[in-house]
Design a protein that fits this description.
This protein has 423 residues and is mainly alpha-helical. Helix content is 58%, strand content 4%. Among the domains are: 6-81, no CATH class; 181-312, Serine Threonine Protein Phosphatase 5, Tetratricopeptide repeat (Alpha Horseshoe), CATH 1.25.40; 342-421. The chain has a two-stranded antiparallel sheet. The protein has a two-stranded parallel sheet with strand order 3-4. Helix 11 runs parallel beside helix 14 (258-270). It is elongated, with a radius of gyration of 35 Å.
């Protein structure tokens, strides 16, 4: 015979010694209950509190004072009973299905889909745990279950703010990325940022395959065309800096991911998006993507940015930027050929260029000499920009001198370059 403090519901024996049952079913007059007014006096508030206590769940005084009292609701008890029955069913399925563990687990999961929204001690949901370990098959099955039984689990985020799409991109799971996009998670690429301030586009630039980026961009393009996503969200995602001050554009340039740069450029053109490829870091040296690529000798990335006309080089405007960059020979050569300050020299006839070199060797770049140049060649009003470059090269760091020297050399002014170098 059961103890008087026990009751039986199906196969579950629940002891009520230290359990205070609460009934959250609304009272019959709940619709007529007066809502508390923040402007009522203290006495009225106290009276309202007493009223709420009377109509709300009651707890026995001796249990209310007990330190080991466990307060549960009837809903909790029902959930406990349901989980017990699910596990019990799994035991019998295991014996009936001849130890087919995969099918047993599948049936068990079908009965408890809400667990997909829970987290372990590391802050991962079951889906995120599978993705973080690159268990793609398990992740796929769990995603299917979530789509059918618990769609909210698809947007669950880890303790560090990563979502399923971020983990799939970081792990290189191309098929899982495509599945998540098909399940409607594509827009999260522009909406979710983790604790490091990074979104999916940052993660693509830092290590995923070109295929994954193409899938993400194709999804964003569809969302833009269907007006389910605002263009400003996409441009913000491309130009937002993480905790290191870098945008996805910085990482693509630094990692020399020219194919990704091309994909983003084409994506922007197709969707009429305009954003700044010359955006600076928000912290650190405040480099642009071009300067960051030049620093690590990512010449192909530099060449793409310059040849597409996405950025330009102007030592006058960005001298503080280039002072922070130590360039390799190949990077200097490339940047030199695209420096806007020396574009006028490109149009100089060979004989005039020779006169310019001779005059510089004899007199130096003085105001008197520049005045003579303007007198002889009035059609060259921008020629003093050469003076600016030479002045920069003489008064700033060695890297800037090398830039100016290589600019002049690459344009055919070898003697002028050697003069500048002090040879």
């Amino acid at each position: 015979m059961a103890d008087e403090n026990e009751y039986e519901t199906d196969c579950v024996i629940v002891r009520t010694e230290n359990i205070a049952l609460q009934d959250h079913r609304p009272p019959s007059d709940c619709g007529a209950r007066k809502q508390p007014d923040c402007h009522e006096n203290v006495g009225a508030q106290t009276e309202g509190k007493t009223e709420r206590q009377q109509v709300g769940p009651t707890i026995a005084p001796e249990l209310e004072k007990s330190s080991d009292t466990i307060v549960v609701t009837r809903q909790h008890l029902e959930a406990m009973r349901r989980y017990y029955m699910a596990v019990k069913s799994a035991y019998f399925n295991y014996s009936t299905l001849d130890a087919d563990s995969a099918l047993v687990l599948q049936k068990l999961f079908e009965q408890t889909p809400e667990v997909l929204s829970t987290s372990n001690k590391q802050g991962y949901s079951p889906i995120e745990s599978a993705l973080s370990q690159k268990k793609w098959t398990a992740a796929t099955h769990l995603l299917d279950l979530a789509a059918r039984k618990n769609p909210r689990a698809l947007q669950h985020r880890t303790a560090t703010g990563d979502d399923a799409l971020m983990l799939a991109v970081t792990g290189g799971g191309e098929n899982v990325v495509e599945k998540l996009i098909n399940l409607g998670c594509g827009s999260l690429a522009c909406m979710h940022y983790n604790a490091s301030g990074r979104n999916v586009l940052h993660m693509c630039a830092l290590g995923s395959s070109d295929t994954i980026l193409h899938k993400i961009l194709a999804s964003l393009s569809d969302l833009l065309k269907s007006q389910q996503l605002a263009p400003k969200c996409v441009t913000a995602a491309l130009c937002t800096s993480d905790c290191d001050g870098c945008t996805p554009l910085h990482y693509m340039a630094r990692e020399n991911r020219v194919s990704m740069q091309k994909a983003v450029h084409q994506f922007a053109q197709q969707n009429l998006l305009r954003f700044d490829w010359d955006v600076r870091q928000t912290t650190g040296d405040r480099l642009t993507p071009l300067a960051m690529a030049a620093r690590v000798n990512a010449v192909d990335a530099c060449r793409f940015l310059l040849q597409q006309g996405l950025v330009g080089i102007d030592l006058n405007d960005h001298i503080d930027l280039w002072l922070q960059v130590t360039l390799s020979d190949s990077a200097r050569s490339l940047l030199g050929r695209h420096c806007k300050l020396l574009e006028p020299i490109n149009d100089l006839p060979p004989e005039n260029l020779q006169k310019l070199q001779d005059g510089l060797q004899q007199k130096g770049l003085t105001d008197e000499f520049l005045l003579q140049l303007r007198t002889h060649w009035p059609d060259l009003p921008q020629l003093p920009t050469v003076s600016t470059v030479l002045l920069v090269s003489q008064n700033y760091c060695s890297s800037c001198r090398l830039v100016a020297w290589d600019i002049l050399k690459s344009l055919g002014a070898a003697d002028l370059a050697e003069l500048l170098e002090g040879r």
